Amino acid sequence: MQHFECMSTIENISRLEKDVLTLAEKFGATDKTSRHVLLVLEEILTNIRLHAYKKEPGLIEISASLCDADIHLLHLEITDWGPPFNPLVDSAAPDLESDIDDRPVGGLGIHIVRNLTHALSYVRLDAAHADALAPLSGGNRLCLSIPLG
Fold first, then answer.
1. What is the predicted pLDDT for the residue at 135?
2. Residue 123: beta bridge partners?
3. What are phi and psi of 7, to 5 degrees?
4. Range of the domain at 32
5. What is the pLDDT at residue 107?
6. Which of 9, 30, 34, 61 has a CA that sits 20 to 30 A from residue 75's CA?
7. Which of 25, 18, 57, 23 is nearest to 41 (CA)?
8. Where are the alpha helices (DSSP H) in the chain?
9. What is the total count of domains within the chain?
10. In DSSP terms, which residues pair with 124 in a beta bridge?
11. Which CATH number do you get for residue 16?
């Protein structure tokens, strides 16, 4: 398992995305599935930066591994230490029926993530999981698997 972490600045998030993408390619990601990995990472990491930390620097951690060599699944555990937020439950369902011009901007992120992942789950971490850089209030972890082959 590879572990990556950074503070949630735009520059650091960009580097983190590249590092995880490089690992996915080592694990056998195709051009198409590399784009899927990048899209999922951009969506989740941008939401952490904007919503969990309100654009202030905060710690983001990613653990990455190849969880099923036969079907090439990249397993990611993405952790932030922001306020409790379960995007699988707390996000509004996207409007997929209205005319495109009548829909609000945004709101499709978790829908896209669900469609590009094999498995997706959320857990709220208690303070016992926190390290020296994280607040003692606990954190949020999204666990997901993205098909690479």
1. 54
2. 141
3. -85, 150
4. 2-147
5. 74
6. 9
7. 18
8. 10-26, 31-47, 87-90, 109-116
9. 1
10. 140
11. 3.30.565.10
134, two tokens: 């994280």
Sequence-distant (6+) residues with CB within 8 A of 56 are 8
Residues comprising the chain, all counted: 149
In angstroms, rounded to a whole number, what is the distance separating the alpha carbons of residues 118 and 99? 29
Can you give the pLDDT at residue 34? 98
Q: Which two tokens stand for residue 3?
A: 């572990």
The distance from CA 143 to its chain's CA centroid, rounded to whole angstroms, is: 8
CA-nearest of 30, 16, 31, 7 to 76 is 16
- Kindly report whether the global pTM for this prediction surpasses the value 0.70: yes
Give the whole-angstrom CA distance, residue 86 versus residue 28: 30
Structure tokens at 74: 């990249």
Residue 10 CA to residue 19 CA, distance in Å, equals 14
Q: Measure the CA–CA gap between 116 and 73, rounded to whole angstroms.
A: 12
Model confidence pLDDT, tens digit, residues 26-48 = 999 999 999 999 999 999 999 99
Written as one letter, the residue type at 142 is L
What is the distance between the alpha carbons of residues 75 and 99, in angstroms, rounded to a whole number?
Answer: 36
**Cβ(50)–Cβ(9) below 8 Å:** no
